[in-house]
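Problem 12. The chain below contains 425 residues. Write out its predicted structure in token notation.
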Amino acid sequence: MIFFSQGSPHGRITPAEAREALVSCLDKLGPKKRVLALPPDFTRVHSQAGLLTEAAWEHYGRSLSDILPALGTHAPMTGEEIRRMFGEVPPGLFRVHDWRRGLASIGEVPAGLVRKFSGGRIDYPIPIQVARLVAEGRHDLILSVGQVVPHEVAGMAGHNKNLFIGAGGAETIHRTHFLGAACGMEAVMGRADSPVRRVLDHASDNFARGWPVVHVLTVVGRADDSGLVLRGLFIGDDGECFARAAALARRVNVALLDEPLRKVVVYLDPAEYKSTWLGNKSVYRTRLALADGGELVVLAPGVGRFGEDPVIDGLVRKYGYLGTSAVLDLVGREEDLRRNLSAAAHLIHGSSEGRFAITYCPGGLSRAEVEGVGFRYVSPDRAMKRYDPGSLREGYNTLPDGERVFFISNPGLGLWACREEFGGE
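Solution.
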């Protein structure tokens, strides 16, 4: 059922209007004794989820007993990140999701269905594991708050991805990530219907039926003045709110270009991007727009590691960003990658497949480290002197010496693709 639905490609929902809409829906749901909020972490700081979670806390008071940021594999939020994102919400309400421990197994998507969803590319079952706090917390409302935006694994982020991947366990995350990578990002990103989404929907329909989940989904876009605005807000307890949000996100967050880009410069805000695991959004959100033989320059002053945890960081350092065929071959031969399929997927996600050069300019990794995983290296000081993110405007720029570049200030906000590569839409 849809409780609230508003959005358009050029609309604006103010923070006050968003709060009012959420509180109105919560009023209609009636009193609750024990509420769990499941928002994204700081990697979605622009999602408006912090403001909406704060509004839910103000509404429920002590009844909002737990807040579990949907970390997935990401590092836990710091106190400063919690304060910046969630405002006045007491820090003591926040719990830390551990994707390797504290899990409940609620079912398994059979290999036959995974084979069907993947067109025969993958032939393994996918166990569905979630945080015990979600599955066994005895809450009478689970408020799943999240942004719908193009995503490299599920096609579009949000909805039940928040439950089964954001608050999911290692096997679920490993196998869904590898499923998406094996099916090809080009065929997945920016699409509401994907092999991984079908797995998640099967889990919702068969293993989580009756859970008291209400989804609060946002669509955020860039305004003409370069600021970010809330374009859509959708609240409901079934798949319809996701369908509406994804349809709007496709119009708001997918930038279709008429010709391939020869040079793209992406800036990674150091407050948000501290690893290539996150920073490689610069790669896969632009790969459909980059020309063969082109170059992607990643300005990454805050990046100081590859993985978000030591295991995955070590695997990236060991194997590097090799592309699909090489990674599939390694998975067949190397036990450590078979045990960590999300890392294998990430090695595919971060590769250009040999089509274009990737030049990384990180503040906390050496030339040897960067070149060791298959990227080119330029120091961030040198790169940012030439490509000053404070001076470049979104989109096309011509530098004083005549070089033409396409600038993106935050790759997490969308997907850039050639119209022809994206199906001619």
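Discussion. The mean pLDDT is 95. Students who got a different answer should revisit the alignment rule from Section 12.3.
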